[in-house]
Amino acid sequence: MVDGAKRILVLGLGGAGCSIVSRIAPRAPKGMEFAVMDCDSQTLKKCSLIENRLNAGKSVTDGLSSGGDMDTGRRCAEKTVKPFEAMISGVDLLLVIVGLGGGFGGGASSVIARIARNVGAHTIFFTVFPFKFEGGVIRGKAHNGLRRLRAYADAIIQMSNSRLQPEGDALLQESMENADRTFAAGVVGLWRLLTQTGGVCNLDFATLHTMLRNCDATCRFSCASATGENRADDVIQALFDHPLAENGSVFKDAPGLIVGITGGDDLRLSEVRKILESVRPDNDESWVRMGIATDTAFSNRISVLVLAAEEWKDPLVDDNQNMISGQAELSSVLRPRSRAFGGAERTIWNGEDLDVPTYLRRKIKLPR
């Protein structure tokens, strides 16, 4: 790893997440790190190509599945805090692929996000929503899992199964491969965007951090590649045709946008300008950042990734405010007490000021 480089881990969580990661990992660029986590030992056995595997909650399910019960999935994750902390030790960004609506993925995702936040790792969740034909109960569980996840995840990209499927009466295998390509393009594109150093205008981790702090946990992404003489026009059209782009309205309405462009030594300024002008939000006040990287492997090819915020709000928690132990130190960094406490001494317990609301001390994001 290059000195100063940020460590990124892609985690497949639950049955759906493990299956997707096990299929995309063998074709991923060299240097990407993958891991899988589930309570079902049979699922993990199918991920034999992934070296980093974590069997969660053996004492809860005895190596079996959660049976579709979210509370069982949550308890499995709670029983695996220490091993999971060891798994993500030193990780700066955790990219999690998880299916909501099931037991382990839906129940464990918020626990995983909370643990990652506590150890200082940022999280982006690629969540898969059930088909409509799976019924209201399953979809209700998915929405319940999403609501819990929003309290701790830095960003959530919602991907409906129905949107990931090719048009027409596609074969089951073709549908799965299409979904895999969408996920792979997203996680690989984001990884490449943050790890490439041979760029004209690199996007660093601090830029992504700004996006994550302000997007209120809701994001969309679109990615595409194109070759040939008309590659700029072709890649723009492919970005607009992406299943999550809604014909480009996601870009135009976005209050915040990150655009990463990768090309070879033949990348032209006119192509960069055309791409940026096509995806740039209509509102001039929108927060927009761009990254341009060159790679000899992309000769005659352009690859673009767009990460769009659906909301843009000032964070309720100031990540720059460090909660440090000691009453004297605390008094120097915290705001003065409100008059409601009558100037009484602060209540300090285990280095924490209990007069500060829990959601601030634990950096929990409240629903808006």
Overview of this protein structure:
This protein has 368 residues and is an alpha/beta fold. The chain has two domains: 1-165 and 177-195, Rossmann fold (3-Layer(aba) Sandwich), CATH 3.40.50; 220-313, 60s Ribosomal Protein L30, Chain: A (2-Layer Sandwich), CATH 3.30.1330. Helices cover 37% and strands 21% of the residues. The chain has helices at 14-24, 41-45, 58-61, 70-78, 81-87, 104-118, 136-149, 172-195, 205-214, 231-241, 249-252, 269-279, 327-333, 358-361; strands spanning 8-13, 33-38, 53-55, 93-99, 122-129, 155-160, 199-201, 217-227, 256-263, 287-294, 301-309, 348-349, 352-353. The strands form two sheets. It has an eleven-stranded mixed sheet, sandwiched between helices. Strand 2 (33-38), helix 2 (41-45) and strand 3 (53-55) form a beta-alpha-beta unit. Helix 1 (14-24) crosses helix 6, helix 4 (70-78) packs parallel to helix 6 (104-118) and helix 10 runs parallel beside helix 12 (269-279). Mean pLDDT is 83; it is low at 318-340. GO terms for molecular function: GTP binding; GTPase activity. Residues 7-198 form the Tubulin/FtsZ GTPase domain. It comes from Tichowtungia aerotolerans.
Short description:
It contains 14 helices and 13 strands.
Write the layout of secondary structure elements.
Elements: E1 8-13, H1 14-24, E2 33-38, H2 41-45, E3 53-55, H3 58-61, H4 70-78, H5 81-87, E4 93-99, H6 104-118, E5 122-129, H7 136-149, E6 155-160, H8 172-195, E7 199-201, H9 205-214, E8 217-227, H10 231-241, H11 249-252, E9 256-263, H12 269-279, E10 287-294, E11 301-309, H13 327-333, E12 348-349, E13 352-353, H14 358-361
Parallel strand pairs: 1-2, 1-4, 2-3, 4-5, 5-6, 6-8, 9-10
Antiparallel strand pairs: 7-10, 8-11, 9-11, 12-13
Helix pairs in contact: 1-6, 1-8, 4-6, 6-7, 10-12
GO biological process, one term: cell division
Keywords: GTP-binding, Nucleotide-binding
Pfam families: FtsZ_C (PF12327), Tubulin (PF00091)
